[in-house]
Specification:
8-stranded mixed beta sheet, mainly beta, Immunoglobulin-like, 519 residues, 5-stranded mixed beta sheet, 33 strands
């Protein structure tokens, strides 16, 4: 088998350490500028000054620009850049974004096409773009092995061969992922196909088909700040303000009919418990890997970092309503550490776990969009699930963490199977086309576990049947008790390996990550 560390842009140990040191210095320079902003100091002279996402068709909810690959000759250009974003009036914050100051455009690709991505890096640090949920070979995945140096450009051609789904693209530069995603390097990637289009689902982007990228961020005096301190490594970066598409608790004007929400948890660490303020029901139709076989009627939905969900909700009653979430218990605990430089503007009412926070409000508007009302289809997308009896191997993974671990520590406090991440070590070797069962559990707390290059099904949770919300094709799942995953490996990874890791980004950066080849 070829050595995956000799191809696909991967680094040897010496270069990796040099690059990481240089990147950390560059990030510290950016953070120092960010600190100056937070204290009312100097602004970035060369930065972009536009306010992200002026309202487009959906009231005050910013709708990221839609870039459809077919309308651009199967060529999409992205550029990672520094900028300034006004989240609150009169308060500018230093941020990062793709083709703008914060976040990136929504990219739409079509099943069966080959799409070339031209990704430039205008930052002062290395970066990558990982196509989270896209099934492509390892050298195209955008992992830490496909670093893009400052001033450089990466041009992968992505074969789109999977069913319709809502995906997520973001930075994945090891040691910098948490910082860069928190600062804005993320966006939505949508795969569409004829089967989905034939279902009659709401599909007017920005009108009845809304991108909803949810993040929590920390603000002090209206400016974005980077949380630091002893709890960041163990709990991940969390914030006192919820953003949707880069705006704090915005309002969306929606048609008074069925609307499709594409929910993406873009937070570094927070798990959301989503419902509507009037307890209305909605229909869950899609997971990370695409549409479910049947729609599921729910009143609440859990969404962990890296997870996506598509839902249909009716606004036919014409009544305003809010998408809400339960309070973040971990953030409340961290808020009490404010004297240690943790959370900043902490509010007493956030200690009340019985209350909810507003994520996004909806104002129905008669006749908006002009399309006929869609109906909720009972049957969605048929798919073939691998036979568990076909599994050729079982593997065991334990996500380890020491509560005493600190950011930038060398004691291996964050690891998988007691081994912190090493970019020069291949942890597992898998056969192309093989079916395996991976049993995964987490210590100390619940972890969102993500596997690159695959979609999997949940077989069992804690020795019992999967939970209702475990169903469908997944690429990210919450584990604490042991969860058995049925995985088929159809994408090669010999030129560069795939990753598996905790999607609490600070855990990932600290070493809770491994890598595997497929060949």
């Amino acid at each position: 088998m070829p050595d995956p560390r000799s191809a696909g842009g991967s680094l040897n140990s010496h270069l990796a350490k040099q690059a990481l040191r240089a990147n950390q210095e560059a990030v510290m320079m950016l953070l120092n500028r960010r600190t100056l902003l937070a204290s009312g100091g100097l602004l970035l002279a060369a930065a972009c000054t536009r306010k992200f996402g002026s309202p487009e068709r959906a009231g005050t909810l910013p709708i990221p620009r839609l870039v459809d690959a077919r309308q651009h000759g199967q060529l999409i250009n992205l550029r990672a850049q520094e900028g300034e974003t006004t989240f609150f009036p009169g308060r500018r914050s230093a941020t990062l974004g793709y083709n703008g100051s914060y976040l990136g455009p929504t990219l739409r690709v079509h099943r069966g096409d080959d799409v070339t991505m031209t990704v430039g890096n205008s930052l002062s640090a290395d970066t990558t773009v990982h196509w989270h949920g896209l099934l492509v070979p390892g050298e195209l995945d955008g992992s830490p092995h496909q670093l893009i140096a400052p001033g450089a450009t990466w041009r992968p051609t992505l074969p789109i061969r999977q069913p319709a789904a809502t995906l997520f693209y973001h930075s994945h530069a090891h040691g910098l992922t948490g910082e860069q995603v928190y600062s804005g390097l993320a966006g939505m990637l949508v795969v569409t196909d004829e089967e989905e289009q034939g279902l009659g689902l709401p599909s007017d982007y920005g009108v009845d088909d809304l991108p909803v990228l949810i993040q929590d961020r920390q603000f002090e005096d209206g400016r974005l700040v980077m949380p630091t301190g002893m709890m960041v490594a163990s709990q991940g970066r969390r914030g006192n303000t919820i953003l949707v598409n880069g705006a704090p608790t915005p309002r969306a004007d929606v048609p008074d009919r069925l609307v499709r929400l594409r929910l993406v948890n873009g937070s570094n660490a927070r798990i959301y418990e989503l419902s509507f303020s009037d307890d209305r029901t909605f229909h869950w139709i899609g997971t990370e890997g695409g549409l479910l076989a049947r729609s599921v009627e729910l009143q609440a939905l859990t969404l962990a970092p890296g997870q996506r969900a598509e839902i249909l909700v009716s606004f036919a009653d014409g009544k305003p309503v809010a998408l809400v979430t339960a309070q973040d218990a971990s953030a409340s605990m961290m808020g009490m550490m404010g004297g240690m430089g943790m959370m900043g503007d902490h509010h007493d009412d956030e200690d009340d776990a019985s209350t909810t926070e507003t994520v996004l409000t909806f104002s129905p508007r008669p006749g908006l969009g002009g399309r006929a009302a869609a109906a909720v289809p009972l049957l969605l997308a048929a798919r073939t699930v691998p036979d568990p009896e076909a599994a050729v191997r079982r593997r065991r993974f334990v996500l380890n963490m020491s509560m005493g671990g600190m950011m930038d520590s060398d004691d291996g406090a964050y690891a998988i199977n007691d081994r912190p991440f090493d970019i020069d070590r291949i942890d597992e070797e898998v056969g192309l086309g093989d079916v395996e069962i991976w049993k995964v559990s987490g210590k100390k707390m619940a972890h969102p576990f993500h596997i690159h290059g695959v979609h999997f099904d949940v077989l069992r949770r804690d020795g019992d049947d999967p939970d209702l919300l475990d169903q469908g094709p997944r690429d990210t799942i919450v584990v604490k008790e042991a969860v058995e995953l049925l995985v088929r490996f159809d994408q090669p990874a010999t030129k560069a390996p795939f990753m598996y890791h905790c999607h609490i980004l600070e855990h990932e950066d600290e070493g809770m990550m491994g890598q595997f080849t497929v060949g």
